[in-house]
Design a protein that fits this description.
The protein is elongated. With 335 residues, the protein is an alpha+beta fold. It has helices at 34-48, 67-76, 81-95, 157-162, 179-189, 197-215, 219-239, 245-252, 259-267, 279-283, 324-334, and strands at residues 3-13, 20-23, 52-57, 104-113, 116-124, 126-132, 138-144, 151-156, 170-173, 191-193, 243-244, 274-275, 287-292, 295-300, 308-311, 316-319. The protein has two domains: 3-193, no CATH class; 197-303, no CATH class. 39% of the residues lie in helices and 27% in strands. Helix 2 packs antiparallel against helix 3 (81-95).
Length: 335
């Protein structure tokens, strides 16, 4: 992950504890600094695993902010990275005056991965640890807590500049316990939140379950396709990229690469072509399967508790929504 530019500023509560103060770095880090590159990579990996909100810049109205103009100046070369990062840090400090717990090191990095450039912003907290000195003695050692991000955002500069309608090129951390921080970040970014990643992911999984049922796949084929979907979603999570419906369709069925995509469009689930995967939703999506005494049962785990219930005391499954094909077979048998 080549670093084009990176810098670290410091945010601290004032002595009276009533506001955040900024200690700005005078210059960016060296672009070939291996330690900085390792830090950015680690934070980027942590960010990819967290729940996020997605959207795009508001061009006008109350939500629009100065960041859009700053980025345009920066990308045009009329503002350097230090100026851009300092302006962002100053505005963030103003927006989060009431959130003094956010004090720490504000890292900003301009990253290039292949043909894609991104701007990554993350507030990193420091914690006390223990190290070993040259005399082999245990000594206090301050450490950055790179696994516990509470405030961070990423802007896909390449997608933003492409001006493709409907593209969700801004993401930000959206932890359940950090609502105020998320609100402060959206104000800083001057963005309009668009895709609801958990909802979109659940809808995609519902579309997949419907597709598996419609195709009347056997247990092994159903499990294989489920694993393919989950593996693809987790891979995109690690890369911090959205799932693409056409790509997913090709992976789910190599013999009929457009079948799943056409299923989604024909029924009109209202899904965008690109969906940011939600980690929590994906992690709960697996198939329960079992075979015994001439009975074979297979269903997606997210259906448990809704259309399927397990009565452990009576050792039985209650199916509330019988598959259409099964109902037709039962009806024929009865007649």
């Amino acid at each position: 992950m080549p670093l084009l530019h990176s810098i670290v500023h410091r945010l601290d509560p004032s002595l009276d504890g009533e506001r955040l103060t900024l200690t700005a770095a005078p210059a960016p880090a060296q672009s070939d600094d291996p330690v900085m590159a390792s830090l950015v990579n680690t934070l980027n990996d942590t960010y990819n695993t967290k729940a996020k909100g997605w959207g795009s810049f508001a061009e006008e109205g109350d939500q629009a902010g100065p960041l859009l103009a700053w980025l345009r100046d920066y990308m045009a070369g009329t503002q350097d990275f230090t100026q851009l990062s300092t302006a962002i840090a100053e505005r963030l400090a103003r927006e989060l005056q009431a959130q003094l717990s956010v004090s720490g090191y504000l890292l900003l990095a301009h990253i290039r991965q292949g043909d894609t450039e991104t701007l990554f912003i993350a507030l990193v907290h420091q914690r006390e640890g223990i190290g070993i000195n040259e005399d082999h003695q245990a000594v206090p050692a301050a450490q950055l807590n790179t696994s516990q991000l509470t405030l961070a955002a990423r802007i896909n500069l390449t997608q933003w500049q492409s001006e493709t309608p409907g593209t969700q090129y801004v993401s930000f951390l959206k932890d359940r316990g950090g609502k105020k921080l998320a609100e402060g970040m959206t104000v800083l970014l001057g963005m309009e939140e668009g895709i609801d990643a958990p909802h979109e992911t659940r809808t995609l999984l519902k579309a997949f379950s419907d597709y598996v049922e419609k195709e009347d796949l056997d247990e092994d084929a159903s499990r294989e396709k489920t694993d393919t979907l989950v593996d693809y979603a987790n891979g995109q999570l690690r890369r911090g990229e959205p799932m693409t419906l056409e790509t997913l369709s090709e992976l789910v069925d190599e013999q009929q690469p457009k079948a799943f995509y056409e299923h989604i469009r024909n029924i009109d689930y209202g899904l965008a072509d690109e969906i940011p995967p939600d980690k929590r939703t994906i992690s709960q999506f697996r198939r329960f399967t079992g075979r015994a005494g001439g009975v074979s049962i297979s269903f997606d785990s997210h259906l448990l508790g809704s259309s399927i219930e397990y009565d452990e005391g009576q050792d039985r499954l209650i199916i509330k929504q019988v598959p259409k094909q099964l109902k037709e077979q039962l009806a024929k048998r009865k007649s």
